């Protein structure tokens, strides 16, 4: 055996022993220390490609490497909505666990609810890479994933596996689980796409969200127009109401809207909600606008240099989106 092979074997054994020791130490920590240790990994993750960091996060949650919250929420945080109990109002939006790979690990963080998706009926790769960029100065990201999805059948398999585990271990699902539905990029019948998603995935959901507001799918936001939205929601709602859901009844149906809609659009959306009697709105999605300031001029330049698609200049999350989303939420609030 060559010296090089022996060295590689020794390095592998040493690395394995170090990992085993680290995991052994991790298991001895209390809950708070585990969360602090996980948070300390943030700078390391932010030093690598944004999409790769996202994928590492999904795998860590999937493999049980995230800390699990074992402390009970105060009773004052508990909410009752649609006959579901939310242990607290803090949730994880769709877009992180797109294919329902890590539901147990993510809900275990102490979330009151989460959404998986957006899920398209057929698998699709989304936009070309690179498609996620950090804006450190704004504490935000530019996101142009483009509904990359494993497809409804794959997600149904993941969710079915999860629910079978919950039957034997109810604590694996401490919060409420929503499924966010999208349309395929090349589909000519959006309503049919959402109905297919509902029929395949609705039975696994505590609530279902129709996402008509992602700026990364061509033509999708046009579905927020009054007639288009009313026709779409009416069709999907009728599909839901015509299915047999058993004793638990159908999942609540919500519509996810953009934070960039005009005042007239807000009035139209409110009219559709009243006319169709959907169960709620999710406010809101990513924004195609950028607030003023030098940092945002830098962001605009950054986007222009790295993107060839008009829909790519999207602030996916962070402080830059908060005020706009809150204003849209206030406009649709029902007293």
Question: Can you offer a commentary on this structure?
Answer:
- The protein has 335 residues and is α/β, with parallel strands linked by helices.
- The protein has helices at residues 3-28, 31-40, 42-45, 50-62, 103-107, 152-168, 190-201, 226-241, 263-276, 294-306, 319-332; strands at residues 79-81, 84-86, 91-92, 113-119, 132-135, 140-143, 176-181, 207-211, 253-257, 280-283, 315-318.
- The strands form three sheets. A six-stranded parallel sheet has the order 3-4-7-8-9-10. It has a three-stranded antiparallel sheet with strand order 5-6-11.
- It is globular and about 75 Å long.
- Mean pLDDT is 82; it is low at 302-315.
Key descriptive features of the protein:
about 325 residues; alpha/beta; six-stranded parallel β-sheet; three-stranded antiparallel β-sheet; about 15% strand
Radius of gyration from CA coordinates? 22 Å
How many strands, what sense, and barrel or not for the largest sheet? 6 strands, parallel
Query: Which strand order spans the largest sheet, edge to edge or round the barrel?
Result: 3-4-7-8-9-10
Count of discrete alpha- or pi-helical segments spanning 4 or more residues: 11
Give the end-to-end Cα distance, rounded to a whole number of Å: 77 Å
Sheet-strand content, in percent, reads: 5-15%
SS content category: alpha/beta
């Amino acid at each position: 055996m060559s010296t090089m092979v022996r060295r590689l074997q020794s390095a592998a054994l040493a690395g394995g022993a170090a990992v085993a020791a680290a995991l052994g130490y991790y298991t001895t920590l209390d809950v708070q220390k585990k969360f602090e240790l996980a948070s300390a990994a943030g700078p390391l993750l932010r030093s690598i490609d944004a999409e790769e960091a996202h994928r590492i996060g999904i795998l860590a949650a999937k493999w049980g490497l995230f800390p699990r919250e074992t402390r009970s929420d105060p009773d004052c945080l508990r909410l009752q909505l649609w006959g579901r109990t939310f242990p607290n109002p803090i949730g994880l939006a769709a877009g992180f666990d797109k294919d329902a790979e890590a539901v147990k690990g993510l809900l275990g963080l102490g979330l009151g609810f989460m959404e998986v998706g957006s899920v398209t009926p057929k698998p699709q790769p989304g936009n070309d890479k690179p498609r996620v960029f950090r804006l450190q100065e704004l504490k935000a990201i530019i996101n142009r994933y483009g509904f990359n999805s494993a497809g409804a059948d794959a997600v149904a398999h993941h969710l079915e596996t999860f629910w079978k585990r919950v039957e034997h271990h109810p604590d694996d699902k401490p919060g409420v689980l929503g499924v966010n539905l999208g349309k395929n990029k090349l589909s000519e019948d959006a309503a049919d796409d959402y109905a297919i998603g509902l029929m395949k995935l609705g039975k696994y959901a505590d609530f279902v969200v129709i996402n008509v507001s992602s700026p990364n799918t061509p033509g999708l936001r046009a579905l927020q127009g009054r007639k288009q939205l009313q026709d779409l929601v009416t069709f999907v709602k009728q599909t839901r109401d015509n299915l047999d859901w058993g004793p638990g009844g159908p999942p609540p149906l919500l519509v996810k809207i953009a934070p960039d809609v005009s005042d007239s659009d807000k009035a139209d959306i409110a009219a559709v909600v009243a006319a169709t009697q959907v169960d709620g709105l999710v406010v809101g999605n990513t924004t195609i606008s950028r607030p003023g300031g030098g940092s945002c001029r830098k962001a605009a330049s950054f986007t222009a240099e790295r993107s060839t698609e008009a829909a790519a200049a999207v602030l996916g999350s962070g402080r830059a989106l908060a005020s706009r989303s809150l204003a849209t939420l206030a406009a649709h609030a029902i007293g």
